[in-house]
Amino acid sequence: MADELQEQLDSFDPAQRAQALDILLKKAADGQIELPDAADRVNLHCHTAFSYNCYGYSPTSFAWLARKKGLSVAGIVDFDVLDGVVEFLDASKKLDLRACAGIETRVFVPEFADKVINSPGEPGISYHMGVGFPNASVEGSATQFLANLKATAQQRNQALIDRVNRHLEPAKLDYETDVLCLTPAGNATERHICLAYARKARQVFDTDDALAEFWTEKLDTDAKQLGLPEGRDLINTIRVKTMKRGGVGYVQPGSGSFPTMEEMNRFVLDAGGIPTATWLDGTSAGEQQIQELLEIAMSTGVAALNIIPDRNYTTGVADEKVANLFKVVDLAENIGLPVVVGTEMNSPGQKFVDDFDSPELARVAPVFMKGAYIVYAHSILQRCCSIGYVSEWAKQNFKTVNEKNDFYEAVGKAVTPQREHILAACDANSTPDQIRKIIQ
Predict the structure, then answer these.
(1) Residue pair 92/38 in contact by the 8 Å Cβ criterion
(2) What whole-number distance in Å separates Cα of residue 214 and Cα of residue 291?
(3) Across-strand partners of 74?
């Protein structure tokens, strides 16, 4: 029964997802399923099936699992769309799970046009985010900007497939038939395309030996070691060998391939979110100048920093990456940027949640928890009365960024979805002290 309900949570049919959650909630209310108290663990960077989740998690599914595993705060971030925002926030409210939702894309940073930042081999290009969207509602120019993000990504995909098809013939894809069927709302990613190629090759070559021979030739590596027919190593190798720098399908992006960071930040602010810079591991030329990069980012609206901790350390190994992690967290603390963390889950093997008790993360875990509470508090205050973290109200009511961070952290800790109704007494004329009294 549990496996059937989990499968239903991941259905592409939203009615089935909602029905499965209602059944699980009833079982929890009846004591058949234990939902633990929240612990000091968060994941604010989970991609869902609306972009790509390697486990197939829908927004509802991730919300359920996050609640079942006792996360204090959970958040989704999908590439180029806000398609899962409403579903995730609604499911999380039913589960009394602190939640936030956002978007990720790539942007161009003109000031770093000659330096690789965090998109390998692509100078001037950076992964970039917006977090804490109060809902999926956008208006005016933001509507067209969002539509352009998705449309441009899909155009890149189709052009990519045209190039890769010539190399992988006879395992050729039809974008509509073979790729879009893997997504619930037509927002395919490179990882969907890689999976589609793996499945197409399995259809074309009906014996293991023929399949292995095909991939060995096309990928110039021993395919028998890649987990045929669609294992993680095969999917990753298809992506690296055909779609990334040096691959047959790769085209070097130019300054007009993606929106500028400033344009993306403007969209995020217009939609009520927090513009968020991202960090890889500190080894690129661009990230070695991280203070200058963050100063530029903040001048155009960035107010938070995203980190994927699991990329930045190996348990028990004190190496350059973990040293870089500590440095960038310390820098973020010094300049007042809340730190947003998570595990993505867009590649097999990635954890559901980081090990905050590990020796490497224990030192910085309080910073991660604080960032999560701040983003959740922003989400609910922006939604109820437009007094979120980057609002005019916040600018007028706090003398320092540390005062602001402490306030939003306190709200995030004190309020849960089942208590959000108490914020109805707040408005843009409320003072921070008045809100503190309300949430006590």
Answers:
(1) no
(2) 47
(3) 43, 99
Amino acid in position 332? A
Between CA 120 and CA 39 the distance in angstroms is 35
Nearest one of 133, 82, 52, 129 to 340, comparing CA atoms: 129
**Do 227 and 299 fall within a single domain?**
no
Q: Is residue 22 a part of any domain in this protein?
A: no
**Would you call 392 helix, strand, or coil by DSSP?**
helix
- Residue 315 predicted with pLDDT over 90: no
Pair 273, 130: CB distance under 8 Å: yes
Q: Name the token pair of 169.
A: 């013939």
Per-residue model confidence (pLDDT) at position 277 = 98
Query: Are 84 and 58 in contact, with CB atoms under 8 Å apart?
Result: yes
- Triad 319, 323, 325: Cα angle to 5°: 120
Q: Report pLDDT digits (tens) over 370-380.
A: 999 999 999 99
Domain tally, the chain? 2
State the Cα–Cα distance between residues 85 and 62, nearest whole angstrom: 12
| Residue 214 lies in domain | 148-242
Same domain, 298 and 381: yes
187-222 pLDDT per residue, tens: 999 999 999 999 999 999 999 999 999 999 999 999
